[in-house]
Amino acid sequence: MLTTKFIRRNKLIIFFLLITPSILWSYQFLSGALGVNPIEKLMDELGLMALRLIIATLFISSLAEFRFLRSLIEIRRMIGLFAFYYVCLHFLSYIILDHFFDIQFIIKDIIKRPFITFGFISFLALIPLASTSTKSWIKKLGYKTWKKIHYLIYLAAILSSIHFFMLVRVNKIEPAIYIGLILLLLIYRIYKRIIYPLWAQ
Asked: DSSP assignment of 83-148, as one string?
C-alpha cells in the first residue's frame, strides 16, 4: 500500500524523475540529436509531457478518493506544477525558438489557427491554477472559491487534448485516447459532485 510517509520520503526522487525529461531534451536539442526539425520535435515533446501530466493530475484527484490511494494527494500539487512547467517551456519554445519573439506574427497565428488558439487558452487557464496552488492561497480565497478556480484544469485538459488532436496529421489514436480519458474523468466528476448527491436526497 502507498503510504503518505513513503511518498514524502521519495518526493525528491519524484521531482528528479519529472524534471529529467526537460534536461534530456534540452541536451539533445543543443547537441543536434533531435532529428531534422529539432525545434518542432522539442515543442512536441514538451507539449505532450505537459498534457500527460495534466491527465495524471486529474487521475490522482479521482484515485485519491479511494482510501488505499489517498496518499497520492501528497504529489498531486507537484505533478500539477510540473505540468505548468512543461506548458511554459512548450510556449516559450514556440515564442523564442520557432518565431524569434515576433509578437505581431504570434498574435496573428494565435487568432488565425484554431489549434494554436486552443493551446493558448489552455495555457491561460493553467496560470491561475499554478499561481494559487499553495495552502496560503486556499486560506485567502476560501476552500470553496479555490476549488471552483481549480476546476479550470478540466478546461485546460480538454483544450490541450484538442490542440494535440488537431496538430497530429496522420495517426490520431493517441490524442483520441487522451480526449476519451479526460471526458471519462469529467463525467465521473460531474456524477460524483452533482448527479449522485441529487439522487441521494
From this structure: HHHHHHHHHHIIIIIITTT-HHHHHHHHHH-HHHHHHHHHHHHHHHHHHT-SHHHHHHH-HHHHHH
**Buried b / exposed e across 74-87, counting CB within 10 Å, b at 16+?**
bbbebbbbbbbbbb
Amino acid at 170: V
CA distance 97 to 39: 7
Kindly state the cell numbers that stand for 52.
Answer: 500527460
Report the sign of the C-alpha dihedral through residues 64, 70, 72, 78, in that order.
positive
Q: At what angle do helices 114-131 and 152-167 cross, to 10 degrees?
A: 150
The pLDDT of 47-61, averaged and rounded, is 97
The Cα 122–Cα 183 span in angstroms is 16
Give the angle 91-92-94 at the CA atoms, nearest 5°. 65
pTM of the entire predicted model: 0.94
**Residue 192 confidence (pLDDT):** 84
Confidence class for position 37, pLDDT limits 50, 70, 90: very high
Task: Provide the pLDDT for residue 136.
Answer: 95
